[in-house]
Amino acid sequence: VRPDAIVFDMYGTVTNLKAVSNACADLVEDPAGFGALWRSKQLEYTFLSSLMEDYEDFWQVTEAALHYATAATGSRLTEGQRSSLMQSWLRPEPYEDAFKGLQEMKDRYPLAILSNGSRGMLKKGLNHAGLESFFDHVLSVDEVKVFKPSPKVYGLAPNRLGVCKERILFVSSNSFDVVGAKKYGFQTAWIRREEVPLDPLGETPDYVVSSFEELALLTA
Ligand code: 2OP
Q1: Ligand 1 center from residue 191 Cα (angstroms)
Q2: 9, 57, 97, 177: the active-site residue
Q3: 3-state class (DSSP) for residue 114
Q4: Which helix (H) or strand (E) holds 113?
Q5: Each residue of 106-130: pLDDT tens digit?
Q6: Cα of 87 to ligand 1 centre, how many Å?
Q7: What are the Cα distances from residue 107, in Å, to 64, 101, 207, 215, 216?
Q8: Ligand 1: does its nearest atom lie under 6 Å from the Cβ of 10?
Q9: For the segment 160-176, what is each residue's pLDDT rounded down to a tens digit?
Q10: 75 lines ligand 1 (CB under 6 A)
């Protein structure tokens, strides 16, 4: 498949959330359960915020989700501990296949990030991960004040890249994200970073890959 540009989701797709789970490991009783609750509430709050048309950026909903997970699990966190959990979102790590795969694709395509992350989170996160040089554009939902899977979010990419939506390949590990992107009109590739089924919602993605190497081969 030869698109005109490739656009990537950020958290869980290009970068992993190890820093977040490592931060939880030191501070709460059941780190895996706490981390899963925190992430699911974070995404739930993005959906609620969009439906209520009451935008709060990804940092704010991540903070609200942390308060919920702390209360729901009866965890006791000092202000300093809470802050270090939040700061871990600013230290994402690239997946091991990211550099090689992105380098190959960068030689052939304009690449962009399109993420729920706030502008500040994305800038700091890409910088920390050493990935910022791969992307010609970094698009945050801050620009449209509504979260994925709103079509307004995906609509940022054709305008900024100057490429029509049918010629964009969108890549995400998050089911709701590839479903929303497909609905909007992108070609989509679901990258299976976790052993999870695809949400049977909307149309299925055009491609399913398990690494950026496979994605680079697919688009060679
Ligand atoms: C992102 O937009 C959904 O967290 C995911 O980066």
Answers
A1: 13
A2: 9
A3: strand
A4: strand 111-115
A5: 999 999 999 999 999 999 999 999 9
A6: 17
A7: 40, 10, 21, 14, 10
A8: yes
A9: 999 999 999 999 999 99
A10: no
Q: Name residue 93's beta-bridge partners.
A: 16
Amino acid at 175: S
Question: Contact at 8 Å (CB) between 38 and 3?
Answer: no
Is 63 strand, coil or helix? Answer: helix
Q: Is 85 within 8 Å of 25 (Cβ atoms)?
A: no
> Is the minimum distance from the CB of 39 to ligand 1 under 6 angstroms?
no
**Long-range contacts of residues 50-56, Cβ cutoff 8 Å, at least 24 apart:** 50/146, 50/147, 50/150, 53/146, 55/145, 55/146, 55/147
Cβ contacts of residue 75 below 8 Å, gap of 6+? 27, 28, 29, 34, 69
Distance from the alpha carbon of residue 11 to the mean position of ligand 1, in angstroms? 5
Q: Which pLDDT tens digit goes with each residue over 18-75?
A: 999 999 998 999 999 999 999 999 999 999 999 999 999 999 999 999 999 999 999 9
> Hey, what are 84's tokens?
């270090």
Q: Is the pLDDT of residue 102 over 90?
A: yes
Q: Is 56 in the pocket of ligand 1 (CB under 6 A)?
A: no
Structure tokens at 157: 């990419």
177 is catalytic: no
pTM score of the predicted model: 0.96
Give CA separation, 195 vs 16, 27, 87, 179, in Å: 14, 26, 27, 18
Query: Which residue type occupies 83?
Result: S
Closest residue CA from atom 5 of ligand 1 = 11
Q: In the beta sheet, which residues pair with residue 114?
A: 139
